[in-house]
Amino acid sequence: MSIITEPMTQAEFEDFLDKVKRYSLATVKGQAAQPLPRSISLLFVNAKSFSSESLNQFEKTLNQETGSDMKRWKDGSESAISEVTEQKLDQNITDDEWELLLNKKKEEDIKFAVQKIEDVYKKVIERGKNHPEEREALIAILNTITGAIKLVVDIVVSFLEEIARKIWLWLKETFEKIKITFITVTEAITNFFG
pLDDT tens across 28-82, in order? Predict the structure, then answer.
C-alpha cells in the first residue's frame, strides 16, 4: 500500500477499516501477532490531517460515549472480581469454581471489548460515508480510540490471568510448606519422644 495521495473512496475506506477491525479484534482476543501489519500501519502514519468543527465534535462525542461505557464496564468488572474474590476468601467456593468464575469474567471482558470496538467502527464508517473528506482523519481517530479500549481491557484480562496463576502457585507453595512443616514436627516428636 502506498502513501495516500488521493482521498479514499468509500470502498477503500471500508476495506481498510475491515482489515484494521479484524486485526484489532484478533488482538483483543489474543489471536493476532504484534506489531500491526505494515499495509495497515502505513495508512496510520501517512493519514492526512483534517480538522473541522464537525469532525472535532464527532471525535469529542465518540470519546465521551466510549469513555462512559468504559467507566461503567470498569465499575462492573471491579465489582464482579471483588465479589468472586470475597467468596473465595470466605471459602464459599472451591478453587476450581473460583478459577472458572475468573475465566468467565475474562471472557465477558473480551466480549465487551469486541462489542465496543465494533460499535466504534460502525460509527466511523457511517461518518466516512457522510463526510468523505474526513476519511483519513477518521482512521487516526479510530486508531486512538480502539487502541485505548484494547489497552484498558488488556490490563484487566492480564490481571485476571495473573490472579489465577498466582493462586495456584500460592496453593502449591502452601501445600509444600505444610508438608515440610509437618515433616519437621514429626522429626521433633521423634527426637523428643523417641
Answer: 777 766 666 665 555 555 555 667 888 889 999 998 898 888 888 888 888 887 7
pTM to 2 decimal places = 0.69
* List of residues 6+ apart from 116 with CB closer than 8 A: 66, 69, 70, 73, 149
Residue 62 lies in a domain: yes
State the CB neighbour count (10 A cutoff) for residue 27: 19
Q: How many domains does the chain have?
A: 1
- The set of cell numbers assigned to 180 is 515440610
Domain, as residue range, for 60: 10-157
Residue for grid cell 473512496? 9
3-state secondary structure 154-174: HHHHHHHHHHHHHHHHHHHHH
Which of 43, 38, 41, 40 lies closest to 3, judged by CA? 43
The cell for 59 is 471525535
